[in-house]
Every structure is written in structure tokens, then in C-alpha cells.
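Lab meeting, item 3. Inverse folding demo.
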């Protein structure tokens, strides 16, 4: 019985010693935390600026289609032809709007992925353990926004 208690005591001491050594080893290394101003990266991105310009151009094209439709419908006097024209242009404008929205969302998703990849790549190269958006952090963390912005297109 004494041997069992001795063995149990030795096992518990070994466990406690191993656990405390592990905690000491872990607690000595403080994590490196960085913050990134995501909004600034997006605003300064040439890809986002190009996307906005393309979007405005396509919206202008859609507005000219609407004006053309209004002019053509205004010239028509037959109610059946007016209804047919309205339906035709409604479908055409809806198709343009859906294509515009899908194209915009696809490109925005691609840009977002590229920004995330740039942040991850830079954080890894600078040995950061954690990167948080600057808008979510009240205090602390090293701002690496400028370093990331230099590496982006």
C-alpha cells in the first residue's frame, strides 16, 4: 500500500513539475500583435479606385438605356406596343443591373482576398502572431498599415 501511495505521489509531483515548467516556457514569450487600418488600405487601393470608375461608367450606360427607353415609349401611341416596350426595357434594365451587381461583387471579393493575402504575408514576414483591424482596437498593437500599403499595387 505504501508503494502505491509513493508511486502516486511521485506521479503527481512529476505531473505538477511538468505542468509548471510548461507554463513558465509559454509565459515568457509575449505575442506580437499588429493592427491594420483596413479602411485606409481600401481607400488607397488602385484596384478599388478602378472598380469605382468602372462602376460609374456602367451606371452611366444604364442611365442612357433608361433615357432611350423613356424616349421610345413616349413616341409610341398604341397601348399594346407601349406595354411591350415597357416590358422589353424593364427586362433589359434588370439584366444590366444584375450583371452590374454580380460583376461588382465578384471584383470586390477578389480585391478583399488580395488585401487579406497582403496583410497575412506582411504579418508573417514581420513575425506577428496576431493582426487586428485598427477600428476594433482601443489601445496597443503596432500599426503596420504603411508597410502593407507599400507592398500593394
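The presenter then showed the designed sequence:
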Amino acid at each position: 500500500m505504501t508503494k502505491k501511495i509513493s508511486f502516486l505521489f511521485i506521479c503527481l509531483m512529476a505531473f505538477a513539475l511538468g505542468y509548471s515548467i510548461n507554463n513558465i516556457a509559454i509565459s515568457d514569450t509575449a505575442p506580437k500583435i499588429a493592427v491594420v487600418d483596413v479602411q485606409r488600405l481600401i481607400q488607397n487601393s488602385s484596384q478599388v479606385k478602378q472598380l469605382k470608375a468602372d462602376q460609374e461608367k456602367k451606371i452611366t450606360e444604364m442611365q442612357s438605356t433608361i433615357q432611350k427607353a423613356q424616349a421610345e415609349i413616349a413616341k409610341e401611341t398604341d397601348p399594346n406596343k407601349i406595354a411591350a416596350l415597357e416590358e422589353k426595357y424593364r427586362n433589359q434594365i434588370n439584366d444590366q443591373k444584375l450583371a452590374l451587381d454580380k460583376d461588382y461583387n465578384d471584383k470586390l471579393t477578389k480585391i478583399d482576398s488580395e488585401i487579406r493575402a497582403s496583410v497575412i504575408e506582411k504579418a508573417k514576414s514581420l513575425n506577428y502572431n496576431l493582426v487586428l483591424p485598427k477600428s476594433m482596437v482601443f489601445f496597443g498593437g503596432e500599426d503596420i498599415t504603411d508597410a502593407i500599403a507599400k507592398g500593394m499595387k
